């Protein structure tokens, strides 16, 4: 399309204008830039978070599998586009990398994971508040956020996103230190809470979560209990409706069944392969298990006995190769004691485990320990030193036995399992690719060597926390060379190495053998076989593993392969628990919201299973303990609460469906419109510096003194390896937009060629052959939010006013600048009158919206004030009831002394009641003052500021 500078100025305005928070157009920039498939429920959730400019945040409570991370990403991306860039994400420690990768891959946002090491590095570099980052989203764990609460409090956050926010739902309990600390530290800042389980066991949990968003939605805990505690056991439709109405402004929940018409879900198919360890493998297991069950061990640091025992059991279950080196390291530690060298306590042992078992640091954080350690061998008695020598010899025996085992039964079973998996995959038309998860790097090496001998040589890629092997380094170097000059190369060696290995797996390799490092932060939709070679006891970790493949974009059913040791009763019960109670391996969605939400953290289950392994010595004891664990799990799932959740948090399907359809249509329309504008604006601006491929939306910037950013660019999704993804927030696009946003244009005549335009625009068709004047202005209104309105006024030479909604359509047809032009005062006056009328309409529209926002906020404050009064009045009512009872009892007393004593007690209660009444009036005054203060804060934002700025004036002619 032939454009003019006026097209460019108009497009620049549209691409940068600030829009009302309740419009889909608010998210247009984020939607255009995001590398995700558009799903309407995600747009709806993101819009909900922006719903009111007076809102303090939202709870996004979609069911598992609907992409709450994407919803939060859209909100973050839009805030970023608005230059509101102090953004914090608090998540469980094991999800931090995944968040960083999702932001990078889908929204082109750089993130900094703050932990002890990176925190100290920031301080050393001169940043005394490492949370204060100007160009990166900050990500940290719950524990780290709690430990650094003063820093959080002194950072002016534009947005805080809290993932797995159900961890904070008991914030109302005095003992919940992390939740209460985070609530206090983040109180003034807007927050988005993500959780699939906002309500699990009690309505008080919902009260707790809502209070983290906004303390003025409900009154205090006492008033909430007084009004709503009966709902759980005595459903009252009116109370339900009232509570639902109060929750709706802060919480939104979409169910999977509501979006099936938009999203295709594949299933999980579980296959279990049984194996029988050899006699020597079983002997090793029995000996080591008995050793770990000893009440005293000198090789395991007392301060971390439980944690070390857990890791030992995991390595033992993984392979004989994983555990053999561990015994040698334990021997080395005891040898130092025996030689009376300095006892280095945990240093040797810990550093070894950190290298061998990659999840060690995270387990250490999650488990913690309470035991005190001995720190020097001089504390041992002679008898104890004899025991140390005996243990030293025993560990050597274990090591020799482990080293003598050359074949592992589970390893041999793996090759057969893979062949079966590939056949099943082939039936479904899926690529023959499998990811194998192990918890040990030594087992990873063993499996690579084993499968290499079984016909997979050259088809295997390894993935772990360091990726320091020669093959991985070679893959990385090839990947860097192939992707030089594209968006894929981030400059972070760690992130780029991970991307290189994933690409290698996708394009060339057939099998990825991975440690737990691959269970987070990478997406493997192209792979549909997940092998749990080692089975974690934490169900959330298993869900993360399978979720690498069973996620958005997966086209095929995902095959989940597990292994079962038939000579181990505890292993069989663990598998049964994970399979039947957690539903991890079969079905469309995997682990249920209800069960995972109940356990708070998979660490709870892991601890209990570890305790069973450690304490039970017979099959009967094992079965009895697992039966109790299953009963405990079932008891914690409250069926009545499921009904309550449905009543309070879920909307009618018809209502949801209609909203989703509207959002889907509007979103697609805005994406198409904005991409079209950005493409045409770029093409016009860089016509002398770049070559353009309109069909594929690709352009290449050639070396030029005018443009400093060069390369091949692709607008939209699916950029090739050598291409940059072009988007609104790309530095080159920002340069182009800024050039025209700030351009000052003279008044000229513009010829619009409607005849050669392929589109039919009926309003313009009637203007062919006519001419007149056109003026674009920008009306900026600052009130509860910043908004820009296009004021488009146009007239014909005959004085006919062209409808305002038709005027922008002029700029969707070919045009060229003809010559300078100068309007008469009459035309200028007419255009000014039309502009003023349009401005008045926009002012009224803005004020109407602000009135609605204000009414909603004031109603919330009214409810809050009423709640606080209810709390005080309940205390009085309780006293009245007690006085009434005492009087009734006093009337029955016949003995004078007792009767006087009873009347004295009644008088004291009446005195206490009078004092409480007085306090009630004082408290009501205080509540009114608080309400007035909040009202004043809202009113201070109500005064609208506005400014009208001319964009350009032209004489138009249409042929």
Lay out the secondary structure.
Layout: H1 5-16, H2 28-33, H3 40-49, E1 57-60, H4 68-81, E2 87-91, H5 96-107, E3 111-113, H6 116-124, E4 137-141, H7 142-147, H8 149-153, E5 159-162, H9 177-186, E6 191-194, H10 203-213, H11 221-228, H12 237-247, E7 251-252, E8 268-275, H13 279-292, H14 305-318, H15 320-338, H16 346-356, H17 360-367, H18 382-404, H19 409-427, E9 434-437, H20 441-456, E10 460-463, H21 470-482, H22 493-507, E11 511-514, E12 529-532, H23 539-547, E13 558-565, H24 569-581, H25 593-598, H26 602-615, H27 619-635, H28 639-649, H29 653-685, E14 690-693, E15 698-701, E16 711-715, E17 724-726, H30 731-741, E18 748-753, H31 762-765, E19 771-782, E20 786-796, E21 814-820, H32 825-891, H33 896-942, E22 945-958
Helix pairs in contact: 1-29, 1-30, 3-4, 3-29, 4-5, 11-32, 12-28, 13-14, 14-15, 15-16, 15-18, 21-22, 24-27, 26-27, 32-33
